[in-house]
Amino acid sequence: MISATTAGLVLAGVLFTLGLISMLIRRNIIFMLVSVEIMLNAAGLAFIVAASKWGQPEGQVMFMFILAMAAAEVSVGLALILQLYHQLKTLDSDEASRMRG
Amino acid sequence: MGIAFYIAAAVAVLSTIMVITRFNIMHALLYFIVSLLSVAVVFYLYGAPFMAALELIIYAGAIMVLIIFFVMMLNLGSQTAGEERSWMTPGVWIGPSVLCLVLLGELVYLMLQPGDLSGDVRVVDPKEVGKSLFGPYILAVELAGMLLMAGIVGAYHLGRQKKKIVHRFLQNAES
Q1: How far apart are CA B20 and CA B25, in angstroms?
Q2: Residue B48 and residue B122 in contact, taking contact as beta carbons nearer than 8 Å
Q3: Which top EC class is given (chain A) (predicted)?
Q4: pLDDT exceeds cutoff 80 at B91
């Protein structure tokens, strides 16, 4: 029987790896944004597990900052995707690899 | 850890795998909401009930709804009506519903058995978190406020429909 901290960190690692794999294999920009969310969520889970391991509130404080950052990141990212979609008429990220003035 | 953690972890990993293998963005978002719910259960098991509530309210309630509204607003493809009909088939919603029911059963089990936390998990009070947040970390809170302000301004600036201005020489060259 593994300890609670190990189990939680393994879960966070598995979720982060799944998000990373999705980020690498997907070409739809919205899917890439969602996989960034998966990775941020896994990082927050690791912080919560560490906070419960040490009994200190710092981990949960850091999780609240991750939440605020994720909210700001999603709003700006969605606005960027909207601009890209209006200019390129597609959500394929490879289409945006070349910048034209 | 108890059996509750393993059930929640299995639901989280399963729904995340379903997220990264779906082809339709709406199906993936449904499964991602289930994944967030199960991660919130894991937070509760690790002695952070306030963070579990924040995860539900902000992640599942605000960010996911924002992305779903955005996908609906983009109106991808011309066959949206046919897609809308195909989204309502049982094959779409039966998977997230089953996973949600597993989580609901686990929630009822946890509510009937208080103090299910295992030995090496320490509960951190929301009161301590608040004291720490507005004590030593007050500068970071202000920085987070500035970050959100920059996010609002950036989203407004980028999301605006700009009038396309083309110089007349370039216009002649293009036409």
Answers
A1: 10
A2: no
A3: translocase
A4: no
Per-residue three-class SS string for A24-38: HHCCEHHHHHHHHHH
User: What length does chain A have?
Assistant: 101
Question: Tokens 């779906």 correspond to what residue?
Answer: B22
- Interface predicted TM-score (ipTM): 0.90
Say whether residue B69 is in contact with chain A using an 8 A CB cutoff: no
CA dist B31 and B12 (Å) reads 9
pLDDT in tens, B11-60: 999 999 999 888 888 888 989 999 999 999 999 888 888 999 999 999 98
Main-chain phi, psi angles of A92, to 5 degrees:
-70, 125
> 17-56 in B: which are within 8 Å (CB) of A?
17, 19-20, 25, 28-29, 32, 35-36, 39, 42-43, 46-48, 50-51, 54-55
Q: Exposed (0-12), middle (13-18) or buried (19+): which is B139, by Cβ within 10 Å?
A: exposed
